[in-house]
Amino acid sequence: MSSVPLIVDLDGTLIRSDLLVESALAYIKPNPLRGFQLLGWLAGGKANLKGHLAAAVTLDVAHLPFDSAVLAMIAEEKAKGRPIILATASHRKFADQVSAHLGHFDFVMATDGAVNLSANAKRDALVAKFGKGGFDYLGNSADDLPIWAASGRAYAVNPSDAVERKARALGNLEHVFKSNPGASWTKAMRLHQWAKNLLLFVPLLAGHRVAEIPLLVNAVIAFIVFGLCASSVYLLNDLFDLADDRQHPTKRDRPFASGKLDIRLGLIAVPLLLIAAFAGSIAALPWQFTAALSTYYVLTLAYSLGLKRLMMIDVTVLALLYTLRVIAGAFAIEVEPTFWILAFSMFIFLSFGLVKRYTELHQLRLRSSDEKARGRGYSLDDLGMISGLGAASGYISVLILALYIQDQSTVALYRHHEVIWLACPLLLFWISRVWLLTYRGQMHEDPVVFAFSDRVSLVVGVLFGLVFWLAT
After folding, report:
1. Less CB within 10 Å around the terminal CB: N or C of the chain?
2. Domains of the chain
């Protein structure tokens, strides 16, 4: 049994996250203008900022992304009877909650009052209590270098290469934990979701103008620009939804929620992607496209910050966001979006949005009989109504397609316009199948991802395109 206490850092060590950033995000989520309040608090020092945030915010510490390797070491040392102390720059309120949740720590040292317990301040506090070399220390960042220098044995948890080199130079580095599995930015940016932006090509295809190279180039640029903008919003949405995602059976594995990616890097990536998107749009595409992109961004941001929690408004906004892609595609090639395309898009994408909500509620029903969907405006009792509305919306889109066939503009555009009738039973079959699979709980949480990965859907899509090709 060792009497030398083991001191454990919290942010980036015990948990793969930063509670200051998490509490700041939780504070500004209801109203982004609160960011100015944060700057005012920060002017009074970091300890002042942390104190105000701790008073204003509640964090769910039970679902924080704890580092399993660090937890295993703490449990092993605790079993030997060794004193275990949590020493952190996070506010005492959150540190005490983490300590109470885990039950491993003998006592807690944390930021409280005017002192921010970080770097030299933490070192001085530990040396004053245990003496120089009288403790071992687990940390992760450059702020921990002076504390490692004053400790008996040093342990580094997922340090950067530069920090690891400096820690080794101290001569007392006992072990380096490489327990963070890491995550791909491709997954965080949800590049697979860029498939939705293929809707930008719909006006080009519908107008039979794919062979016009300048228009095709504009559509490709629009696709990339829209993808960058969407990824910026996806990252921001994930940062704001950390608490909700960590309680979701699949979303808890998202890079930021799981701690596989540093949320501070996410805060840097969000504006960079957005700047790149709008710079490309302004430089290469018509101003109408930039206006549509701006509308998409504002609407998506509003959805992420609150609209997604409002019953039926959420799915209507989803339908609008899909339809905005079609409108933006028309603006990119400087054509007017037609009534038929807009009407068809709104109804079929409303059906998609309802599929998404039904799937979430169905998964919830498998886990609980009376729970309300966290972060949503629905309960399990709404399942029947959602499926009815969703199927009806999908069938209305088929009716719009049928009416489109007899329109005079369609007759002028297609040599054999009557052949398009074959697309109606294909669409009826596909929508019916989608809703049956959804009802059975066999639907992916994102119906668009399902459409691009399901073999039957791909075959129907090819046949659908073939019908329109034959009609020309």
Report:
1. N
2. 6-177 (3.40.50.1000), 183-337 (1.10.357.140), 344-472 (no CATH)
